[in-house]
Amino acid sequence: MATRVFALIIGIDSYKAGAIWNLNSCVDDAQNMRRWLTEDLSVPRDQIRLLLDSDASKQRIEDTFMDHLVNNPAIERGDAIIIYFAGHGSTLPAPNDWYQGESPPTTVPVLCTYDHDTERPGQGIIAGISDRSMHAMINDLSKLKGDNITFILDCCFNPLAYHSSIRHRSHTRWTPTTEATSAQLYHGLWSSARGRPQTSHTGFYPLRPSTHTLLAACGPAGKAGEGKEGGRFTSALLHITSEMPIHRTTYVQFIEHVAQQLSSQQAICLGKNKNRVLFNGVPFIPDARFLPVAVDKERRLRVEVGAIQGITTGSEMTIHMHNYRCSRNTSIASVVVSEVHPTWSFVRSRSQESEIPASCWAQVTKWNNRRPFRVKLKSTFTSFLRMWKLRRFIPKKADEGHMKTCLNVLRVTRSQEADISVTVGRSGVVVKRYDDALDSHQVVTIEKKTGLEVVDDAARFHLHLHRRNPEYPLRNLIHMELFYLNRQSWIKSRRNLLEDGKATIHYDQHAVYSMMIHNQSDLDLWPYLAYMDPNSYAITILYHPEPSLGKAPLPKGGQLEIGSGKTGSEALSFTLRDDDYFDTRFLKLFLSTSPVKMDMIEQGPSVKREGHSYPISLPLDTKDQIWDTEMACITFIRRRSTL
User: Fold this and answer.
1) What is the DSSP letter of 627?
2) Are 291 and 361 in contact (CB under 8 A)?
3) Lowest mean pLDDT: which of 52-61, 366-375, 469-478?
4) pLDDT exceeds 80 at position 161
5) What are the pLDDT digits (tens) for 387-402?
6) DSSP string for residues in 390-444
7) Class of domain 5-281
């Protein structure tokens, strides 16, 4: 799932004005900030604007601020917005009427843009971005997008230490202004700041701004320094994010940890909302891959995952302290499944020394599928090296080598023995499927993934597509029906498209569908409907009832409609690639007599990975539940006239 975080990141080392000493690590700091956002917080690159050196002129910064933040329709009110600046700060003499009130300051702090203190034709000398302009810009942004704005400054404006230690100038993110004058402050003022009295005398450091939260490298008279590791403040900030869980850390707590890493400067945090969790918790949502763990009366570890999700005796998991995305979550123990039930399992620790808390979370690391997934590796002259690297991680025998996949996978030499064949090409991974559930051995190319990732996805897909309860307790008691829906009236057609669990449909990209599930058993059931696409090995849960419902959605002798088109039940639709004439998809129904976490099997580019609200302490009843599956195979045929 794309994190709802948007950022404008600015880093300037090399300045246009020859009188300004260049810095050494602001660009690196900015790039490291972007790397943290993309890799650790899962922020898509197109939600980040990075302005470095000559790209960070005053005009470019202001234009990007408007285009990427203020006028960006993708940003919704409450989304997290980060504005980061690493570069020089400076001051200019204050114009006579700049401040209101008694004892006004004599200087105005500014952020030094790339073209600060240089002349721009037709505009005179550029005087950077003043605090008055910056506050007006953020105020405009806050009116439209809310107050979840974090302003991070790694610079300083009037470091007292500079005057007594000029030799440290090249390591201090401050510069004197020699060309720009007070007149240029008014000339470059942000439009909404004009005519608005400047009543604050605290520069970039208002005590309780309501529009944003400020994280700064130092106070108004402090020094922001840099060293071999980069800006000391930014380096400490990024170090803390890698060393501690931050999903429940407030801005105040966070800056306290950052300050402990700094010896020569005092980081500060200001804002009305400084006691909020970082970014108001937007990036830190529950991750569906983590499963609740609790301790029963006999002190055994019980994990809320069982046979319905594909767990078997010998499956392996790691134990973690929380289940939130984008927050450090190292493993505290490794466990192996010792006893499997339909919807839960008992596990035992691999180490006698591991102390596992009463409430924690588990993540499956090895499924221990009984039948290995079989892969034939096909090399070409141009792909030999790439295939050789992949071959090292897929053994020919179960006890040979170290498998890097999370399922048991074996390499075979004959196509007749294989589930898939794989060739790693330059433009993607080419996969040929030999699955009996498919009507043809279709060849697909999967991009932006390594060969090992594709094999892992394919193995999990195969596991969840084919597994079923061998006892088949609901045999002939559950029936699935698929109907066309009228897009205007939302009335479903009379004819059921499924016959013996299969349907052949002439593809219409505008068509929508509804599914009816009939329960002829004497059990109240919790149904979970998964959409499975063998072209990308994506698994998406289309229907996952909240466990808080309390009452099973599919009562005994009753029925349930999924995709009615009404509020809360979005109609089902299917998409074929433009070059597909014939394709097969699957709708797999998982059924249980108690609520379970089926979203943990999801995979693929559209997966949101946001877990449902399961409590960490679930009822520890030992009564076995019942589970089963049903599946519909849908073959789409594109009419030749539409090709």
Assistant:
1) E
2) yes
3) 366-375
4) no
5) 888 888 888 887 665 5
6) HHTTS-SSTTSS---SSS-EEEES-GGG-SEEEEE-SSSEEEEE--TTSSS--EE
7) alpha beta
| Res. 581 pLDDT band, cuts 50 70 90 | confident
Query: 548 versus 530: which is more confidently predicted?
Result: 530
Q: Where in the chain is the domain with CATH 3.40.50.1460?
A: 5-281
Enclosing H/E stretch for 119: strand 119-120
Q: How far apart are CA 629 and CA 343, in angstroms?
A: 13
What's the N-to-C CA distance of the chain in angstroms?
A: 33
| pLDDT over 90 (residue 24) | yes
* pLDDT at 643 > cutoff 50: no
> How confident is residue 347, by pLDDT bands cut at 50, 70 and 90?
very high
Which two structure tokens, joined as six digits, stand for 359?
């409430």
Distance in angstroms (rounded) separating the CA atoms of residues 219 and 18: 28
Give pLDDT, residue 616.
Answer: 45
Residue with tokens 């589930």: 419
> CB of 427 within 8 A of CB of 451?
no
CATH 2.40.10 in the chain is located at 290-366
Helix (H, G, I), strand (E, B) or coil at 256: helix
For 584, half-sphere exposure in the C-beta direction (CA atoms, 13 angstrom radius) is 17
- Is the distance from CB of 445 to CB of 410 less than 8 angstroms? no
Assess if CATH 2.30.40.10 describes domain 478-642: no
DSSP state letter for 44: -
Q: Which two tokens stand for residue 360?
A: 């924690």
Q: Which residue has the tokens 């998964």?
A: 530
Instruction: State the amino acid at position 391 in one-letter form.
Output: R
Q: Which fold has domain 290-366?
A: Thrombin, subunit H (2.40.10)
**Mean per-residue pLDDT for 239-253?**
95
The type of residue at 240 is I
**Rounded Cα gap, residues 408 and 429, in angstroms:** 20
> What angle (nearest 5°) sits at the alpha carbon of residue 185, between those of residues 179 and 190?
140
For the chain, give every residue range classified as CATH 2.60.40.10: 478-642
Q: Which amino acid is at 212?
A: H
- Of the CA atoms within 13 Å of residue 256, those in its CB half-sphere come to 8
